[in-house]
Design a protein that fits this description.
Blueprint (H helix, E strand, L loop, with lengths): L1 E11 L17 H25 L3 H10 L21 H20 L3 H17 L8 H9 L4 H21 L3 H21 L10 H21 L5 H17 L3 E4 L3 E4 L5 E11 L2 H19 L1
Length: 299
């Protein structure tokens, strides 16, 4: 089948401080070397900013799922008790992303107690990764105090995730930050594919959102390739190549992308008219591949 849709990729505004510290030898004067390094640092920062903030965060992924008309199903979330299984940097980082998407999904559907429970798991994984400066007991307290205020809860979740991601990057742990982001992205893709009847994909708005993620694949690869020398990133990158094999079966053509500022928010939306073609068989294959990948992350 084929149809037209609005392709939407969200980009959070913000600055990622990644310093290029490697020295270099040249025939330039000290002043020229400083200028060259400054240009390289600026280019690195700009490229990193595009990569990190073009990939939807867990909260934005949850929003995409809800706006596509999905319903809440708690059975799709990673069980709370699984948190004790995660003891390595890789599993803690992946599931920090997974649980952040889960609590965002629960919060959007006003499942406030579930949201608080999942935030506790996020805090525990943050402890394991050594980033308690980003998440503390006050975060949980704020959630409990605002249990009936959905907008405030969403703000707390959003700020917590961004603080966590920024903390990791600013402390030379950008490789782990990339794994966190991909974990959240995969969880959002898993929830979305599970909420679709594979025999009824035509004109399904959620299918359109899922297909949109083919556009995100390039961002995922750019993000992970920045840190492919890290063994944890390398293993996740290998997983993404397997997922890409299925996404490549989806035909997609896009018109020129235009950036549009969202009024009264800090989100920039990149819009384009897109024509896609996906068969029920390909969708089923994608859903199975994502489910298997996600199962390997949360076990």
């Amino acid at each position: 089948m084929s149809y037209m849709l609005k392709s939407q990729v969200f980009a959070k505004k913000g600055l990622i401080v990644l310093l290029l510290l490697a020295g270099c030898q040249s025939g330039n004067t000290p002043q020229q070397d400083i200028a060259v390094k400054a240009d390289e640092a600026t280019e690195t920062i700009n490229n990193a900013k595009k990569i990190f903030y073009s990939l939807p965060s867990p909260i934005e992924t949850a929003m995409l799922i809800k706006t596509a008309g999905a319903t809440y199903d708690e059975k799709l979330l990673n069980p709370l008790e699984n948190v004790n299984n995660y003891t390595t940097n890789r599993t803690m980082a992946l599931n920090l992303g997974v649980y952040t998407t889960d609590l965002s999904f629960a919060s959007l559907f006003e499942q406030t107690q579930t949201t608080i429970n999942y935030m506790s798991n996020v805090k525990k994984l943050a402890e394991g990764l050594g980033i308690l400066d980003a998440i503390d007991n006050n975060t949980i307290k704020q959630l409990e105090e605002n249990i009936n205020n959905k907008e405030k809860i969403m703000d707390i979740i959003s700020e917590t995730f961004m603080s966590t991601s920024s903390f990791l990057k600013e402390n030379d742990r950008a490789a782990i930050a990339s794994v966190v982001l991909v974990g959240g992205w995969v969880e959002g893709l898993y929830i979305a594919t599970q909420l679709v009847n594979p025999n009824k994909i035509e004109d399904n708005p959620l299918v359109k959102r899922i297909v949109d993620q083919k556009l995100s694949m390039d961002i995922v690869f750019k993000l992970l390739n920045e840190y492919k020398e890290d063994k944890d990133v390398a293993s996740v990158l290998k997983d993404m190549y397997m997922l890409k094999e299925v996404f490549d079966k989806i035909e997609i053509t896009s018109s020129k992308v235009e950036a549009k500022e969202e009024k009264n928010s800090d989100i920039t939306m990149l819009d384009s008219d897109t024509k896609i073609k996906i068969s029920p068989q390909t969708f089923k294959e994608l859903a199975v591949k994502v489910a298997n990948l996600r199962a390997s992350y949360i076990k």
